[in-house]
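queue> holo job accepted (nicotinamide-adenine-dinucleotide)
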Amino acid sequence: MTSIPPEQDTRFRGKHIVITGAGGNFGREGCIYFGKRGAKITALDVNKIALDETKAIVKKEIPAVQIITFVCNVTDPDSVLAAVKGADTEFGTIDMLWNNAGYQGQIAPTLEYSLTDFANVMNINVTGMFTVLQTVAKNMAAAKKSDDGHKFTIVNTASVAALRGTPAMVAYASSKAAILAMTVSTAKDLAPHGIRVNAISPALIGPGFMWDRQNQLHASSGSPYFATDPDAVAKGKINGVPMKRLGSIEEVVKSVAYLLSDDSSYTTGFNLVVDGGMSAGIR
Ligand SMILES: NC(=O)c1ccc[n+]([C@@H]2O[C@H](COP(=O)([O-])OP(=O)(O)OC[C@H]3O[C@@H](n4cnc5c(N)ncnc54)[C@H](O)[C@@H]3O)[C@@H](O)[C@H]2O)c1
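queue> job finished
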């Protein structure tokens, strides 16, 4: 089955999407995907250089795109509020949020894990994600609801690390599990406001920064679960995937698009796993 060409995909045309972590791999691909489908894009990231690069790439690929960027630290509520206000001023009420910024943290076994790093990972991945979710949800809830009451959508990026616990990544796994709990709680609280909230849990996605960084740091972590050569670590991980390959960033974005679109109009509080079957099981 082939996908319909972006210009014929009307699901996001004229809709306003906010994407966090837009300077990173997933966020950048998301800006391109939704931009090609006629969405108005507000792109946020703490890294100005990466964010500017995203804007330049998106504009080059889609000259007519409507995109605005804000340098925004998700751990700073004032910075998040300023970005959301700016987004509303530029493009009006936010229809969709891809709450995607994240940090992997240190890679070290539990006995050596730094408490400072643990707190930092939780602050970015959990408190930061909730700050963005709440601020955007207030913008959505203040707008007039559509007739069916299910106009607004949010997707939080979690990870398979939340489901099976990746060795030497206790902070990251804990933070991603918290995101799943945040997703189900907020899905219930926000349903009366016409806002659906779902999560995406990718794993073994690449090639890219996180995949390479993780393999290098797992190899040097001293954890007995990993080989000491990054290539051997990578091969071992892929071998553990039933589909025997890495997933692509585009495959992640397409799954996010499903959850953000009306195609999933009766689904909220769900976690969509994108991992080639790695964590398959009854959950
Ligand atoms: N790449 C993978 O294989 C994979 C797998 C599972 C989950 N994820 C999750 O997907 C999301 C995106 O991953 P990616 O591969 O694009 O990573 P990435 O490192 O390329 O991008 C993450 C982006 O988040 C931004 N960011 C970090 N801290 C921030 C802060 N305080 N405020 C604002 N922005 C901040 C970074 O600057 C970066 O641009 C993350 O939440 C990650 O945990 C990735």
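queue> Residues 115-141 form the longest helix (27 residues).
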